[in-house]
Amino acid sequence: MILPRRTVLYLLLIGMSALFFAPAVWLLLTAVKGSAELAAYPVHWLPRQWNFGNFGRALTYFDYLGYARNSFELATVYAVLVTLSSAWAGFGFARLAAPGKKLMFGVLLSTMMISRCTGASRRSGWSTPTGPGCCGAWPERPT
C-alpha cells in the first residue's frame, strides 16, 4: 500500500512537532515532581505525586517581578539606544559626503565581523580568551 504524499508529509510534521515539543513537556512534568522523585533511579516520566506547590515556592523564593522589571528596563534602554545610534550612523554613511567615507564604512564593518574570541582586545591581554562561545573555551585534554 502506497501512502499519499500529503499523508507522509503530515506524519513527518507530527513527528517533528513531537520531537520539538518533548523538552517543554519534560520541563513541566519535572516541575511538578517532588525532591525524592527528581533523584529517583531509574527515571520515571510521570510524577507519582503531583506537587503544584513547587510553582508557588519558586515565585516567592526570589523577587521575580523585580528581576523582570529590571530586565525590561535594561532591554528597553538598550534597544532604544542601539536603534538611535544605528539610525544616526546609517544616515551619516548614506547621505553625508565626507572624505574617506568608504574607508570608515569598511572599518566599521570589519569591527562588526571580527569576533571577540580572536583575542584582539586589550582587556584580554592580547591572548586567546576562554569565554563562552570562544574556541579557547573547550577543555584541554589532560597530559
Q: What sort of overall outline do the alpha carbons produce when their principal axes are compared?
A: flat
Nearest-angstrom radius of gyration? 26 Å
Overall domain count: 2
Euclidean distance between termini CA atoms:
59 Å
Number of helices: 5
What helical percentage do the residues reach? 55-70%
The number of E-state strands comes to 0
Order of helices and strands: HHHHH
Task: Explain this structure.
With 143 residues, the protein is mostly helical. The chain folds into 2 domains: 1-61, no CATH class; 63-111. It has helices at residues 5-31, 35-38, 53-61, 64-95, 101-113. The longest helix has 32 residues, at 64-95. The protein starts with a helix and ends in a 30-residue tail after the last helix. The model has no long low-confidence stretch (mean pLDDT 81).
Architecture blueprint of SSEs:
Blueprint: H1 5-31, H2 35-38, H3 53-61, H4 64-95, H5 101-113
Task: Quickly list its features.
59% helix; 5 helices; 143 residues
Short description:
This protein is mostly helical and 143 residues long. The chain has five helices and no strands. 59% of the residues lie in helices and 0% in strands.
